[in-house]
Design brief:
homodimer, 6-stranded mixed β-sheet
């Protein structure tokens, strides 16, 4: 019987949500967001139950209660908001509310005209017990009530008094309450973890850090929040790759920034051609002036001439011929890269050293890391490393670049990665986009996996982008920037609609910037910079676009037209996006809007304001016509302007 | 880093199934059944993984391995059979299979004609490590292989030898294996927990225990496994209920057996009019001779004159006027019943005493208990009580009679109840039956909740049964006995198609046997005994009908016709049931059989043998015609007889 410390606690609490892998992993929120907690709560018999969500910030030992309400089928719901960075904890408490049970029964008995003399005495006892828990005026009031109930002249219906019920709830007896056996965790990040626009460029193509500084005003004007740089470290010289990933490297070719380390240093050094550490810190500071943050790429792999290989040979796998095992995916060989051996005996020192790489850059002002191929390093390392780093620096953001199978990608997110690359680049048709985005935003996945949508990267020039020039790029931009609260572009190539693959069927760029220095003419007339600027402005002005969970797809009668809305909780901001997914042809069709969900009156006209073109359309009812010609625009991004009132012949929209 | 005792274990094991409420509750099986375990298993990188389900009986500290196989999307599956009563435990172990990884890479390199000189040396090292783990001949063989691989003349392709791969798997290095963090439990019951036919009767209507003994040959012939008796204890005298639940009881009226306890004794006593304890033990012994077990009803509530009320007043709630609180569901009062107060200070002694009631009857030979209204007693009590009792008596069976909301019903099953009453009595239409049975048999619910299907009980005369006589009863019998591996009837009333409600709209019987002694003419010509005998015989002869998880519904083009199959795992026994759900009218239609799932050749004729009528039909293809006239029979119970071969003009079916 020892297991049941109090066998008298009669409430059952089960199936608490959100709860990831039985509470093994935390859910994620950003500051100001709410956590809606649900649980199945019930007890034996028919007594009335009360329940609360208990929550606390990690710095605060004391719990705060948020009330839960029954909504259906023994399911209860409550919510709280997170207002500080770091960890929150939550659990559920429920108890038999003896007073409310008594009150409900009393009402039924009174309705049936039964004698309730003894019931009033029972009620008086319950009130006196509550008075003993209360203090001051509340205690006095409760004792007065108890005395009254015991009086011969008491009119029984008065015991149903609402103020009394409220007072009794405040002093409910929780001695026999049940508390859910787990304390569940929330990791609270800053807003940029949820909402932001990323821009990737290779600093060496812009003249190093000084050149990057010159790009900042333009990027700020375009509305980017994060400037992400591929690895900035010295590049290996042995087995260096040449232009177009050639195994032969001609003299003067710069090599891939992901082949890290040379005699000039490793993961804590800067490639001399980009500038000095001081130059880098200058870039960080100037970016901050433009409200742009620098994100650094951390790729845990070494060129064969990386200092680690010499200094810590025990971290690499040795082959029987005495050489170090290079990376391979047979029959392919990557002789310019040697991987760490996470099974090595000295794994603890390896882990510590890798963590110290992050710490080095954090100490120089970096708070955002894009992590290269985290799925090829042991998973346990990430849980430990990110956990340790975020304990002291809850503002850190880690973007996981794991393009692998879904479950390893989700696991990395559970283990601590703040955001994740994902399959968006390859989801093109309406069905593909809808089912994938629903899986990311409308399931438990949304609790721990924050997608960052990239239409292109230096590694990914999709078949879709290769199809056609500006229209294909515009389509993918509109989708990425409105489906995803976080999105990013490999910027120069995207702005200029660069779409030539290395060869037919390849997703690699011809003359990829990964292996050579490029000179981009960013003021070319075909640049998409104006569109990008407009889209980023729309994102900033419309809070509905700053979340993912509020995504709702709508029916269209043409499979080339995709339509979806996002709304703020209070419906004060609703954005409807319609995209013609075909970059070649005009498409038209009818879309169906759920007027009730959008809180629209089906008798009244409402205005759809296209924020891309500033055109305004008057719509009425759920069924509405759309026509999009890629020659002009592939997308509408409508802000819904609700009808306020009609005075004479003037219409006002808010 | 302390949390990661070995950061070198690279395999991730998650989403293990079955796992009920994060492993808090066990799954259920009967002896001989298998447990299919699935898990998501993956690691960083591209190495080859091996995995096993580890399982053990509670009496055995050592684990046995059952191999797991990858089947899709990082999901693996393995299985084991349970062969002893009591508890089993299972978990999952996975490791990087270094040899298999090496072998897979070697093959790719050989296919690409690469030089593998160094790879062979690596392989030799791996083999020598395995040899050190192996012993005897295996070790010698592995060392020989290693030596050969190091030889200059070794033909590399020979290293792909299958026998070598098998040998290496047997001695795989599991030093860095990952083991799932939970040990999950299986409760293993005897076969009767899964498969059985129950018959309920009131012994007092048959002249007490001696009269029951006389019923045994008939019940055995009809094919019943369990004879369930309502409470056999002394019945309270104060506030005793009269005929038809009247609050006024005339002298000589026997009262409800569920109003337990009087001056003659309580839950451990026998009502003198039924016989003595010795008579009861004689009934148990005679029943055993007929392969029938007696199930006892345990109803934890007291008549006001139960000895507990006097001896343990602290177990009941006292009202301020000094009286004991009787049961009520306002405005209804049940003054013939006083409930236990599970919140009382002396709860531990209350729990012990209630458990001792079971122990008393167990010591007198009872192994099956039907528990009355368990959802009105504190849930924690059942987990503790059933857990303690089954620890010493794993053959015990507890049937939960909780007709309440789904979640409390499921919770009781999780807490330990072996079987459960359920909503079957009120699921009448095809849609209702299909969705409900799917929820019970094709979801996680099937892991812990074993439905026992009762078309009627002394409390439940459904509207459906009231509609029409024999046809309605035949329909519900066919459904209960074939949808449910366990089913039961409140027998005399069911056999005789007793269907008069107390009043229009009521589900209570007129002149209910709960409040009076009945005299049943079981040899009346309209009795369904022949049909029941036939159905029970079919259930015994066809193992497909002895499980629930194998239930598959099939499409019919007439909503009055429901069709489903059950098959044994090896498909040696397949039963197709088709029921006309309308008791009034003939219905016909076409049903679609999934030939591939049933492993039927679409080019060959197969035979459908109606085991109810012995009629045989030749079918071919998936689309087949059915016609059922309730005037003759409302159901087909077909055994599928597969076509074996044709010799000249003879057809053979097996």
């Amino acid at each position: 019987m020892s297991k049941n410390l109090s066998g008298r606690s009669r409430c059952i609490i089960e199936n608490v949500a959100p709860e990831i892998d039985g509470g093994k992993f935390p859910i994620k929120r950003t500051i100001g967001e709410k956590v809606v907690v649900e649980a199945d709560i019930f007890a034996d018999g028919h007594d009335v139950i009360s329940a609360v969500v208990k929550f606390r910030n990690e710095k605060n030992p004391g719990w705060t209660d948020a009330p839960m309400k029954f909504f259906e089928d023994d399911r209860w719901r409550g919510e709280f908001a997170v207002t500080e960075l770091g960890n929150y904890f939550y659990t559920v408490e429920a108890w038999i509310n003896r007073f409310q049970s008594w009150r409900a029964d009393l009402k039924k008995k009174l309705d049936a005209d039964q004698n309730v003399f003894v019931e009033l005495l029972v009620g008086a006892d319950i009130m006196e017990e509550a008075a003993a828990r209360a203090a001051g005026a509340d205690a006095d009031t409760l004792r007065d009530w108890a005395k009254e109930l015991r009086g011969k002249k008491f009119a029984a219906a008065r015991a149903l008094d609402k103020a009394l019920a409220g007072l009794m709830n405040r002093h409910a007896g929780r001695k026999l309450a049940s508390v859910y056996e787990k304390e569940l965790r929330v990791v609270v990040d800053r807003e940029l973890a949820r909402f932001g626009a990323w821009y990737e460029l290779f600093p060496r193509s812009f003249g190093g850090f000084h050149g990057c500084v010159k790009q900042l005003p333009r990027l700020a004007k375009m509305g980017f929040d994060v400037l992400y740089l591929p690895p900035i470290h010295p590049i290996g010289k042995s087995f260096r790759k040449g232009k177009n990933n050639s195994v032969k490297c001609k003299p003067g070719e710069p090599g891939s920034p992901w082949a890290i380390g040379s005699g000039e240093g490793g993961h804590k050094a800067i490639h001399p051609e980009l500038g000095t550490l001081k130059d880098f810190q200058h870039l960080i500071a100037k970016a901050r002036e433009h409200k742009i943050e620098i994100a650094l790429d951390i790729a845990f792999q070494c060129a064969p001439d990386h200092p680690y290989v010499r200094e810590h040979p025990q971290w690499f796998r040795k082959r029987p011929d005495g050489t170090i095992q290079y990376a391979e995916n047979p029959p392919k060989k990557y002789q310019d890269i040697v991987p760490f051996d996470f099974e090595c005996d000295d794994w603890e020192n390896l882990w510590r050293e890798l963590k110290s790489v992050f710490e080095f850059w954090i100490s120089h002002g970096i708070k955002i890391f894009r992590v290269d191929n985290p799925h090829t390093k042991t998973f346990g390392f990430w849980e430990w490393c990110i956990g340790e780093l975020k304990a002291g620096n809850p503002e850190l953001i880690f973007l996981s670049e794991a393009f692998t199978r879904p479950k390893p990608m989700y696991r990395l997110a559970k283990l601590g990665f703040t955001q994740s690359y994902n399959y968006f680049p390859w989801r093109n048709s309406k069905d593909e986009l809808e089912s994938y985005l629903i899986s990311l935003t409308q399931t438990d996945v949304a609790e721990f996996f924050r997608p960052n949508l990239w239409p292109n990267t230096p590694d990914i020039l999709t078949q879709f982008l290769q199809m056609d020039g500006p229209a294909a790029f515009s389509i993918r931009l509109a989708l990425a920037a409105t489906l995803g609260a976080s999105y990013g572009i490999y910027g120069p190539a995207f702005e200029l609609c660069e779409n030539t693959p290395r060869e037919q069927g390849s997703e690699e760029y011809l003359n990829s910037e990964k292996y050579e220095i490029k000179h981009w003419n960013l003021s070319a007339p075909h640049s998409l910079d104006a569109l990008i600027t407009r889209v980023n402005g729309i994102r900033r002005d419309n809070p509905a676009l700053q979340s993912n969970r509020n995504l709702i797809f709508h029916h269209t009668d043409n499979p080339e037209l995709i339509a979806y809305t996002k709304s703020t909780d209070d419906k004060s901001n609703t954005v409807l996006v319609v995209v013609n997914l075909n970059p070649h042809y005009k498409h038209s069709g009818w879309i169906d809007l759920p007027l009730d969900e959008l809180e629209l009156d089906r008798q009244k006209t409402f205005q759809m304001h296209d924020l891309l073109t500033d055109a305004r359309y008057l719509w009425r009812g759920s069924h509405n016509y759309i026509e999009l010609n890629p020659a002009f625009s592939s997308a509408h991004i409508f802000r819904l302007r609700r009808h306020v009132r009609t005075e004479h012949d003037f219409d006002y929209f808010m």
